[in-house]
TrEMBL record:
<keyword id="KW-0413">Isomerase</keyword>
<feature type="active site" description="Nucleophile">
    <location>
        <position position="13"/>
    </location>
</feature>
<dbReference type="GO" id="GO:0004364">
    <property type="term" value="F:glutathione transferase activity"/>
</dbReference>
<dbReference type="InterPro" id="IPR001853">
    <property type="entry name" value="DSBA-like_thioredoxin_dom"/>
</dbReference>
<dbReference type="GO" id="GO:0006749">
    <property type="term" value="P:glutathione metabolic process"/>
</dbReference>
<dbReference type="InterPro" id="IPR014440">
    <property type="entry name" value="HCCAis_GSTk"/>
</dbReference>
<dbReference type="GO" id="GO:1901170">
    <property type="term" value="P:naphthalene catabolic process"/>
</dbReference>
<protein>
    <recommendedName>
        <fullName>2-hydroxychromene-2-carboxylate isomerase</fullName>
        <ecNumber>5.99.1.4</ecNumber>
    </recommendedName>
</protein>
<feature type="domain" description="DSBA-like thioredoxin">
    <location>
        <begin position="4"/>
        <end position="189"/>
    </location>
</feature>
<dbReference type="Pfam" id="PF01323">
    <property type="entry name" value="DSBA"/>
</dbReference>
<dbReference type="InterPro" id="IPR044087">
    <property type="entry name" value="NahD-like"/>
</dbReference>
<dbReference type="InterPro" id="IPR036249">
    <property type="entry name" value="Thioredoxin-like_sf"/>
</dbReference>
<comment type="similarity">
    <text>Belongs to the GST superfamily. NadH family.</text>
</comment>
<dbReference type="InterPro" id="IPR051924">
    <property type="entry name" value="GST_Kappa/NadH"/>
</dbReference>
<dbReference type="GO" id="GO:0018845">
    <property type="term" value="F:2-hydroxychromene-2-carboxylate isomerase activity"/>
</dbReference>
<dbReference type="GO" id="GO:0004602">
    <property type="term" value="F:glutathione peroxidase activity"/>
</dbReference>
Length: 197
């Protein structure tokens, strides 16, 4: 029986966008179940001494990444609009994702957020954008009212702790058993390993 693939993503991550838009389809072809695991890279970057995305810290790397995204999105027929500012504040979106069941609703919400951000260039910290994403996922827009719930805040802290314990240092990350695969370009390998377990 295939193993579960745990998809760790940050809504501010460009390459997580690429993976989010194909992971369910590609995993289903191999009979692999996907668990969507939202988390925040900010605290992990801080532990590495970074105050922002490495694509901002290292301009040459940032220029390459945006050109790479243009090529990859074009090859996959995905829209790409560079959000401003970059990276986006993904705190609210991550909290909301954790309140949704890890099945259809969470995946649909995540895809809607990524599409709004990287497809349309919208601000994912804006409540209206998040309400739209909740509606697209079939969830009640009133869930926004729960964002200040201490239990939801604590759940996201715990999620970041789990990510660090797994050795995640960037996004997207894919965990199969105890193996970590990093980056959209390793998704196929992660799916294959999950299919063989």
């Amino acid at each position: 029986m295939p193993d579960t693939l745990h998809f760790w993503f940050d809504f501010a991550s460009t390459y997580s966008y690429l993976s989010a838009m194909r992971i369910e389809r590609d995993a289903a072809r191999r009979g692999v179940r996907v668990e969507w695991q939202p988390f925040l890279l900010g605290p992990i970057f801080t532990d590495q001494g970074w105050t922002t995305s490495p694509f901002n810290i290292y301009p040459a790397k940032g220029r390459y990444m945006w050109r790479d995204m243009e090529r990859l999105c074009a090859s996959r027929n995905l829209p790409l609009t560079r959000p401003d500012p970059f990276p986006q504040n993904s705190l609210k979106a991550a909290r909301l994702a954790l309140t949704l069941p890890d099945s259809g609703p969470r995946a649909a919400f995540a895809r809607a957020v990524f599409s709004a951000e990287f497809g349309d260039g919208r601000d994912i910290s804006d409540d209206m954008v998040l309400q739209d994403a909740l509606s697209q996922a079939g969830a009640a827009p009133e869930m926004l009212d729960r964002l200040s719930d201490p239990a939801i805040k604590a759940a996201l802290f715990e999620q970041v702790d789990r990510a660090e314990a797994l050795g995640l240092f960037g996004a997207p990350g894919f965990v199969v058993g105890s193996d970590l695969f990093w980056g959209d370009d390793r998704l196929d390998m992660a799916i294959e390993q999950a299919a063989q377990d």
